[in-house]
Structures are given as C-alpha cells and as structure tokens.
Amino acid sequence: METFIVISYAYLLGSIPFGFILTKIFIKKDIRKSGSGNIGASNVLRSGGKFLGLLTLLLDGAKGYFAILITLNNFQDYLILSASLTFMGHLFPIWLKFKGGKGVATYLGILFAINFILAIVFILTWIIIILISKYPSLASLVSTFIVLIVNFIFNGMYQSFILILFFLLILYSHKSNIQRLKAGTENKINL
User: How far apart are alpha carbons 33 and 41 in whole angstroms?
Assistant: First the structure.
C-alpha cells in the first residue's frame, strides 16, 4: 500500500505542467506552440517574459521539493522511488500526452530536499555557465554533471545512483538541444 501511495503522489505532483498552465492563464497561449515548444522555464521566459519564466522555475522546483519532503517525513525507505517518479512525472506528464519539460527545475527542487549543498553547487555552476555562454541547455547539462562529480568525490556512491539516473534523463531530454548546440543554432537567453 505504501508503494502505491508514493507512486501516486510522486508522479502526480511531478506531472503538474506549471509552464503550460501559467502561459494559458496569463498570456492565453499554448506554450507548446511557441519558441522551442517546451513547457519548461527557459521557453516560458523567452515566450512569456521574466515573471512567468521565474514563476515556472519556482513552481516546477517546488513540486520536486515538496514531493521529496513528503517522502522524507513519511516514507523514507522510498526516497529513490519518489525522486525518480517525481522527475519522470515532469518529463512525461499524463495531462499532456506524456510530453513534458526537460526536468531541470524539478531536479533542482529534488536536490534542495535531498542535499542543500549540491543544490547550491548546481546553481553556482549554472550561473557561471549561463553568464559565459548564454545557453540555458548547456548550463543545465554541465551543472547536472558537476553535481554528480562533486557528490561522488565527497559522498562516494551514496546518492550517486539517483544522480546518475537524473543526469542520463536530463541528457536524454536535451537531445534536441545538444544537436542544436553542435549546429550552432541553439537558443540563447539574456538575463
């Protein structure tokens, strides 16, 4: 029964498509038909402005954070399952025919709940890369990788399995961005 409960709330929380909802409410647009077509914070920023982009980032992060908080307080043995399903919910939301975002903000929310230091490492790395390159996709990929390396150096294999899984999934969700980065056609953002 506990497994079913964790699966249910983790996936359903993760699958709330905040970028889609916010742009529908505030700018009367389907974000999937704008910019890169993605429902995440970067595309919302480009298509709906800084306020909606930031709000999407915070809400997508919050759903990851609160899903893990529920797990840590009630179902600690299911941490990896909860984190995985929350993240998968964002990538493959039932409400949008399983076509979701890239998962970076939700990943960051999960990191804040699991290991605050790693979340700060991610943010600092992301800021440095975005200031240098202006590519949010590159900043996200590099930051996710750096978090994995830092965790491995200081914690060994502890938490590394889930971080490897997140890195591979973020790599997968950014496959089109990687192709555009190689071709020199990737979208930049100005903060």
Answer: 15
Shortest CA distance to 148 belongs to which of 139, 158, 160? 160
Tokens of 9: 């709330």
pTM above 0.90, yes or no: yes
Domain range summary for the chain, segments of one domain joined by +: 2-183
User: Distance (Å, rounded) from C-alpha 98 to C-alpha 186?
Assistant: 24
Q: Quick check: 119 and 108 in contact, CB under 8 A?
A: yes
Q: How many CB atoms lie within 10 A of CB 112?
A: 20
Q: What is the pLDDT along the chain (191 residues), one digit of tens a residue?
A: 899 999 999 999 999 999 999 999 999 888 888 877 789 888 888 888 889 999 999 999 999 999 999 999 999 999 999 999 999 999 999 999 999 899 999 999 999 999 999 999 999 999 999 999 999 999 999 999 999 999 999 987 777 888 999 999 999 999 998 999 999 888 787 76
